[in-house]
Specification:
By secondary structure, the chain is an alpha/beta fold. It has helices at 6-19, 33-49, 60-68, 106-115, 145-154, 190-198, and strands at 26-29, 54-57, 84-87, 91-92, 98-99, 119-123, 136-140, 158-161, 178-183, 203-206, 208-209, 216-222, 225-230.
Length: 232
């Protein structure tokens, strides 16, 4: 297995995260390929061990994949506090500040992250960076998209409305909103930028996750297993 094979690294990380789930837990389920490997393993544990859990999916896609693997589902109304959340990230910096949202599920993922006592972020090594510099997705109320676009540009963003693949027009999130992808270059103060973006009327959420580092454990899938990182 090559250390440079991201799919293999994601599978290793996802399976390790699934191993941290204990009987009776309510688990937040992020959206994306690495988390889907965790779901696959959780489904195996349900069959092999009789593991009893409930999952809170962060998107329709996550819910469909969870059902495929036989994971019972619930929601934040029934369980406003979660034992654990498993999610991926587009980038992770040394203080465990994240950029998320390539799959357009960032708003629900942030709700689940906030509700969880502990968060496992599962990534391949390419996602670990010294400084966040990937595009920052911003979920926007369609009514306010034009004004939000101008305000984001005033913050220095190279802003682009995300458009669909095999669909004409903009991507529509599971919440009925648009996504504006914003390039800021190197982000030296993610917390400040997250607050500035969030203060724009019409912004529903952004892909910067800057305040959850203390409850995050990062699981990095590598050739010979996993690297487990925490701030504690």
């Amino acid at each position: 297995m090559s250390a440079l094979d991201p799919v293999a690294a994601k599978r290793i990380a996802g399976y390790r995260a699934a191993g941290e789930v204990r009987d009776g837990m309510v688990v937040g389920l992020g959206t994306g390929s690495t988390v889907f490997f965790a779901m696959e393993r959780l489904g195996e544990r349900i069959t092999e061990e009789g593991l009893s859990i409930a999952g809170v999916p962060t998107s329709y896609q996550a819910a469909m994949r969870a059902r495929r693997y036989g994971l019972p589902l619930t929601d934040l109304d029934e369980h406003p506090e979660l034992d654990l959340a498993i999610d991926g990230a587009d980038q992770v910096d040394p203080l465990f500040r994240l950029i998320k949202g390539r799959g357009a599920a960032l708003l629900r993922e942030k709700c689940v992250c906030d509700a969880a006592r502990e968060v496992l972020i599962v990534v391949d090594p390419s996602k670990m960076v010294e400084t966040l510099d990937a595009g920052v997705p911003v979920e926007v109320l369609p009514f306010a998209a034009g004004t939000v676009f101008r305000r984001l540009e005033a913050l220095g963003a190279d802003a682009v409305l995300r458009e669909g693949v095999r669909k004409d027009g903009p991507v529509i999130t599971d919440n009925g909103n648009f996504i504006i992808d914003c390039g800021f270059g190197a982000i030296t103060d993610p917390g400040r930028l997250e607050v500035e973006i969030g203060s724009i009327p019409g912004v529903m959420g952004c892909g910067l996750f800057s305040i959850y580092g203390e409850k995050i454990t990062v699981i990095v899938g590598e050739e010979n297993g996993c690297r487990i990182l925490s701030l504690g």
